[in-house]
Automatic annotation (TrEMBL), chain B:
SUPFAM superfamilies in the record: MetI-like (SSF161098)
Name listed for the protein in its UniProt record: ABC transporter, permease
Keywords (A to Z) from UniProt: Cell inner membrane, Cell membrane, Membrane, Plasmid, Transmembrane, Transmembrane helix, Transport
Gene Ontology biological process terms, A to Z: transmembrane transport
One term under GO cellular component: plasma membrane
Domain ABC transmembrane type-1: 61-249
Organism from which the protein derives: Rhizobium meliloti (strain 1021) (Ensifer meliloti)
UniProtKB/TrEMBL annotation, chain C:
Pfam families in the record: BPD_transp_1
Database matches in SUPFAM superfamilies: MetI-like
Signal peptide: none
Protein name: Spermidineputrescine ABC transporter permeasee protein
Membrane topology note: Multi-pass membrane protein
Keywords: Cell membrane, Membrane, Transmembrane, Transmembrane helix, Transport
Gene3D superfamilies noted in UniProt: MetI-like
Annotated organism of origin: Sinorhizobium meliloti CCNWSX0020
TM segment ranges: 63-84, 96-118, 138-164, 201-224, 244-265
Domain annotation ABC transmembrane type-1: ranges: 59-265
Cross-referenced PROSITE patterns: ABC_TM1
Domain of life: Bacteria
C-alpha cells in the first residue's frame, strides 16, 4: 500500500500538565478512510482526537494533514470538523443559525449562505426544523444538526466523539447508516472514537485499538476480530479464554498445561472464543458451574484445571446440568495466536 | 486554550487589586513612624495599642457591638415569625408583606437615617440611640427574612403536621420540630446581619451625636482630623474580626449555602 | 393546618408594621417634602435643583462614574471569571474565597487603603518619583480617578461572582465547538460567551451600577468635597445648609434608580426560573 498518508501523526506525545496521556504515537490515515479509535476510557483515544482538532497542543511530535504540517496551527484555522459527544449546539441560536455559524465566520451571507445551509439541513433530513431551537429537538435530531454544522464546512477530516454511545438501539442503527451514507457520498476522511467494539467493527474501514496512551493494534475489523495481536485486544473483542504460552505449554492457574498438539513457536499466548471450545469430547475434563440460554446458543461456565472456561454450544444440543463433568478440548488450529501477552 | 500565561496573569493582578490594599493597611498599621505611610518605617505595635487607648474608639466600638447584636436579635425576633408565615401559609397579601419587609435593601441607607432624624428624633426628642437601634433593625430585617425563609423552604411542612398528630401543640411543634432544623439557618442569618450592621455607615451618618456614634462613623471623623496610622490599625483589626467570624461560620455551618 | 389566616397575619404583621412605621413612613414623608412648596404640590424643587449647575454636575458625574465602573468591572470580571472557572476544583474554591473575602471587610477599611496608595507620599507617587516620571508628587486623591478606583475595588467581586455563576451554567463544549468551526477568540466571546452569559452580566452590572450610584464612604473618603457624588452632596446639603428640600430631591432620584435596578433583577430572576 503506497497511498500517500492524508493525515499522519508522527511520534506524537500528548500530556495534560505533568500527566502523559499519549506517548510517541505513529499513525497514518488515507484519504477517504473511516477509522475507529477503539479502547477503554483513559487509553488516550479522545486525547488524540482532540489534538487532531487543535484543542490540545502536542508536547512533541508532528501532525500533518494533506501535505501540510498543522502541529502548531490554531484550532480555528484547521480544516477539521468535530462532532462533540454532547453535540455542543449553541442553545441561543436556531437550527439554521447553528448550521450557518461557521459559514458566517467565513464571510458567507445572503443567498449563498441560505443555499449551503439548506443543502446541509436537507442532507440530514431536518429542513423543516430550521427555525427551531436546540432545546426543542430530540437527542437524535440534535446530533444530526451537529453533523450538518460540521459537514457544511467541507472539512478535510471529520472527527466524531462517541457518536453512537448516547443513542438507544434503534437510533444507533439509524445513525450508523447515516454516517456511512455521508461518508460514501462526500468521501470525507472520518475518524470516530468509541469504547464499544460492536460500533467499531460495524462502521470502520480500519480500527486502531489503543491502551494506556499507545496503539495496541491497527487492522481491518476482520483482522481485529479474528486475529487479535495481544491479550488485551483479544479480551476487548470478546475472546473469553485467553492464556499465556510458556515453554510450549499453556500457563494456567494451577500450573502449566500441555496440549496434545504442539503450540506455535512464536505465540506469546493463545485465545479461544467460547464457540471454539469443543464440548463433549477431548483430552480434558471440566465441571459445569453454570449455564445461560440466549436464544440460539447456550453458554457454559466450566471449572477446569485451566481455571474457569467459557464454552458456547448450539441451543439444539440438550442442556448439561450444573455439576456435570464433561470432556472438552481446546483445538490449537482454532485458536487466535497472540503476539503479545499483556 | 493551552496558554496558561494570560489567565494566570489576570488572576494575579485581580487578586493583588482586591486583596493588596488589605495587606497594605496591615503593614502601614505596624509602622514605627508618625504618619500613614507604606512601606512602613520600622515595625511597632504602638499604633495597634493606641487603638485600644482612644476612648472614643472604645465607646463607639461598644455602640456598634450593641447595635449589631441587638439590632440583629430584634430583626430575627420579627423576621422568624414573618418568614414562617410567608413560607407555610398562603397569605392574602403575602407578596406585599415580603416586599415591604425587603424594602430596606433597596432604599439607600442614608435616606433612612435622614428620615428618622427629621421625623422621629428632632420633632419628638426621640432618643438618638433608640433611633439608631430601630434603623439597624430595619436594615437587617430583609436579610433575616430572606435567609430564614430559605431554610424554611428547604424543610418539609409535613413533619409539623406529624408532630401535631402525635399530640403536640402548634407552638410546641414549632419549637420542638422546626427550630432545631432551621437553627443553622438562623445562626447564618445572625452572622450575616451582624456583619452588615457592624460595617454599615450611611444609615448611621445622621443619627450620631455626642457620645452616640458607631465605630465606622467615629473612624471617619477621626480621619478628618488626623492622618496617623491608628485608623489603619483599627481598620485592620476590624477586617480580621469580620474575616474571623465569617471563616468560623463557614467552617461550622457551611455558611455559603444560605447567602 | 396552615389555613388559619388570623394566625398567619399575627405572625407576619409585627415585621410588616415595624417596617412600615419605622422605615416606610418616614421615607415617604421625606420624599413628599420634595414635591411640596409654599403653594402645595409642585415639582418646583426638582426644577430648582436641576437648574443649579453644581447639582447637574454631581448628578451627571455620579451616573458617569457608575457607568464607567460597571463597564470596566464587566471587562475585568469576564477575564477573571473565565480564568477561575477553568481552574481545578481546589484552586477554584480558593480563588472564589479570595474574591468573596473583601466583601466581608468594612468599606471604610477597604477605601482607607487607597489613601496610603494614592496619597502624596503614597506608593504610586513613590514609584513615579523614583523612576523619574515626575518631579513632584501627583495629586491622585480627591479626583474622580480615585473615586473610580475605590468603587471598582469595592464592587468588582460582585461582578466576578455573577459572571462565574453564568459561565458555569454555559454548556461546556460550546467554546471548543465554536473554535473548531473557525472562530477566533474575539468571535468566541462575542458570538457565544456573551449571549449565553447575558443574564449573569445584567445581574452583576445592576449590582455594580446601583452600588456605585448609592455609595457614600468611598466618595466621602476619596473624593471629599472636591468630587461630590449624589450621596455626599446630600450629606453636605443637610449638614451645611439645612437644605432638606434638596435632600429630598436627591433621595427620590436615588430611590428611583435603585428601584428600577431591583425591578430589572426581579424580572430576570423570574424569567430564568420559568425556563
Amino acid at each position: 500500500m503506497s497511498d500517500p498518508a492524508f493525515l499522519s501523526l508522527e511520534k506524537l506525545t500528548l500530556a495534560y500538565g505533568d500527566t502523559v496521556a499519549v506517548k510517541d504515537l505513529d499513525l497514518s490515515i488515507r484519504k477517504g478512510e473511516l477509522v475507529a479509535f477503539l479502547g477503554p476510557s483513559g487509553c488516550g483515544k479522545t486525547t488524540t482526537m482532540r489534538s487532531i482538532a487543535g484543542l490540545l497542543k502536542p508536547q512533541s511530535g508532528r501532525i500533518s494533514l494533506d501535505g501540510a504540517d498543522i502541529t502548531r496551527v490554531a484550532a480555528n484555522r484547521r480544516s477539521v470538523g468535530l462532532v462533540f459527544q454532547s453535540y455542543a449546539l449553541f442553545p441561543h441560536l436556531t437550527v439554521f443559525e447553528n448550521v450557518a455559524f461557521g459559514l458566517r465566520l467565513k464571510g458567507l451571507s445572503g443567498a449563498e449562505l441560505e443555499s449551503r445551509v439548506g443543502t446541509g439541513l436537507k442532507s440530514v433530513g431536518l429542513t423543516s426544523f430550521a427555525d427551531r431551537k436546540p432545546a426543542e429537538l430530540s437527542g437524535g435530531q440534535q446530533q444530526r444538526v451537529a453533523l450538518a454544522r460540521s459537514m457544511v464546512m467541507e472539512p478535510k477530516v471529520l472527527l466524531l466523539d462517541e457518536p453512537l454511545s448516547n443513542l438507544d438501539a434503534r437510533l444507533r442503527l439509524e445513525m450508523r447508516t447515516e454516517l456511512q451514507r455521508v461518508q460514501r457520498e462526500t468521501g470525507v476522511t472520518m475518524i470516530f472514537v468509541t469504547h464499544d467494539q460492536g460500533e467499531a467493527l460495524s462502521l470502520a474501514d480500519r480500527i486502531v485499538v489503543m491502551l494506556n496512551g499507545a496503539i495496541e493494534q491497527i487492522g481491518t475489523p476482520e483482522e481485529i476480530y479474528n486475529r487479535p495481536a495481544s491479550a488485551f485486544v483479544a479480551d476487548f473483542v470478546g475472546f473469553e479464554n485467553i492464556f499465556a504460552v510458556e515453554n510450549g505449554k499453556l500457563r494456567a492457574g494451577n500450573g502449566p498445561i500441555e496440549l496434545p498438539e504442539p503450540l506455535p513457536q512464536d505465540a506469546a499466548g493463545l485465545a479461544w472464543r467460547p464457540r471454539m471450545v469443543t464440548l463433549g469430547s477431548g483430552p480434558f475434563q471440566g465441571t459445569v458451574r453454570g449455564a445461560s440460554f440466549s436464544g440460539s446458543t447456550r453458554e457454559y461456565l466450566l471449572d477446569t484445571p485451566l481455571g474457569a472456561l467459557k464454552a458456547e454450544v448450539d441451543a439444539a444440543v440438550p442442556a448439561h446440568a450444573a455439576g456435570t463433568t464433561l470432556a472438552f478440548d481446546l483445538p490449537v488450529e482454532k485458536a487466535a495466536k497472540l503476539e503479545r501477552f499483556n | 486554550m493551552n496558554s496558561r500565561l494570560f489567565p494566570v496573569t489576570v488572576l494575579v493582578l485581580v487578586t493583588a487589586f482586591l486583596i493588596g490594599p488589605f495587606f497594605i493597611i496591615v503593614a502601614a498599621s505596624l509602622s514605627e513612624g508618625e504618619t500613614l505611610a507604606f512601606p512602613p518605617q520600622g515595625l511597632s505595635l504602638k499604633w495597634v495599642a493606641k487603638v485600644f487607648e482612644v476612648e472614643s474608639f472604645r465607646e463607639s466600638f461598644a455602640m456598634s457591638m450593641l447595635l449589631a447584636i441587638g439590632g440583629t436579635a430584634a430583626a430575627l425576633a420579627l423576621g422568624i415569625p414573618a418568614s414562617y408565615a410567608l413560607s407555610r401559609y398562603r397569605l392574602p397579601f403575602g407578596e406585599t408583606v415580603r416586599t415591604v419587609v425587603s424594602l430596606p435593601i433597596i432604599v439607600p441607607g442614608i435616606i433612612v437615617g435622614l428620615a428618622l432624624l427629621r421625623y422621629l428624633v428632632v420633632p419628638f426628642g426621640f432618643n438618638i440611640t433608640l433611633a439608631l437601634f430601630l434603623a439597624h433593625t430595619a436594615l437587617v430585617l430583609p436579610y433575616a427574612v430572606r435567609v430564614v425563609s430559605a431554610s424554611l423552604n428547604n424543610l418539609r411542612s409535613d413533619i409539623e403536621e406529624a408532630a401535631v398528630l402525635l399530640g403536640s401543640s402548634r407552638a410546641g411543634a414549632f419549637f420542638r420540630v422546626v427550630m432545631p432544623n432551621i437553627r443553622s439557618g438562623i445562626l447564618a442569618a445572625f452572622i450575616l446581619g451582624f456583619v452588615t450592621s457592624f460595617n454599615q455607615v450611611p444609615v448611621s451618618l445622621f443619627l450620631s451625636g455626642p457620645g452616640v456614634r458607631t465605630l465606622p462613623i467615629d473612624m471617619l471623623s477621626y480621619m478628618e482630623v488626623t492622618y496617623d496610622p491608628s485608623v489603619a490599625a483599627l481598620s485592620a483589626l476590624l477586617a480580621f474580626m469580620s474575616i474571623g467570624i465569617v471563616f468560623l461560620a463557614e467552617r461550622f455551618l457551611g455558611f455559603s449555602r444560605y447567602v | 393546618m396552615f389555613h388559619n389566616r388570623a394566625e398567619a397575619l399575627a405572625l407576619a404583621l409585627p415585621a410588616a408594621v415595624f417596617a412600615a412605621v419605622v422605615f416606610l413612613a418616614p421615607v415617604v414623608i421625606l420624599l413628599a417634602e420634595g414635591f411640596r412648596n409654599a403653594d402645595g404640590w409642585s415639582v418646583s424643587a426638582y426644577s430648582g435643583f436641576l437648574s443649579d449647575p453644581l447639582n447637574r454636575t454631581v448628578f451627571l458625574r455620579t451616573l458617569r462614574l457608575g457607568a464607567a465602573v460597571t463597564v470596566v468591572a464587566a471587562v475585568i470580571g469576564y477575564a477573571a471569571a473565565f480564568a477561575i472557572v477553568n481552574l481545578p476544583p481546589k484552586g477554584k474554591g480558593r480563588m472564589i474565597g479570595l474574591v468573596v473575602l473583601p466583601l466581608m471587610i468594612s468599606p471604610v477599611a477597604r477605601t482607607y487603603a487607597w489613601i496610603v496608595i494614592l496619597g502624596r507620599t503614597g506608593i504610586v507617587n513613590q514609584a513615579l518619583t523614583s523612576v523619574g516620571l515626575t518631579d513632584e508628587p501627583v495629586r491622585f486623591l480627591f479626583t474622580e480617578t480615585a473615586v473610580f478606583v475605590g468603587l471598582l475595588q469595592l464592587f468588582l467581586p460582585l461582578m466576578i461572582l455573577a459572571l462565574i455563576s453564568a459561565l458555569e451554567n454555559m454548556p461546556k463544549d460550546a467554546i471548543p465547538a465554536a473554535r473548531v468551526l473557525g472562530a477566533n477568540w474575539f468571535q468566541v466571546f462575542w458570538k457565544v460567551i456573551l449571549p449565553l452569559t447575558r443574564e449573569g452580566l445584567v445581574i452583576g452590572g445592576t449590582l455594580v451600577f446601583t452600588g456605585s450610584l448609592t455609595a457614600y464612604i468611598t466618595p466621602a473618603i476619596l473624593g471629599g468635597s472636591k468630587v461630590l457624588m449624589l450621596e455626599t452632596l446630600l450629606y453636605q446639603r443637610v449638614t451645611v445648609a439645612n437644605d432638606f428640600v434638596s435632600a429630598s430631591v436627591i433621595a427620590f432620584i436615588l430611590i428611583v434608580m435603585s428601584f428600577a435596578a431591583n425591578l430589572l433583577l426581579k424580572r430576570l430572576a423570574t424569567a430564568r426560573s420559568k425556563r
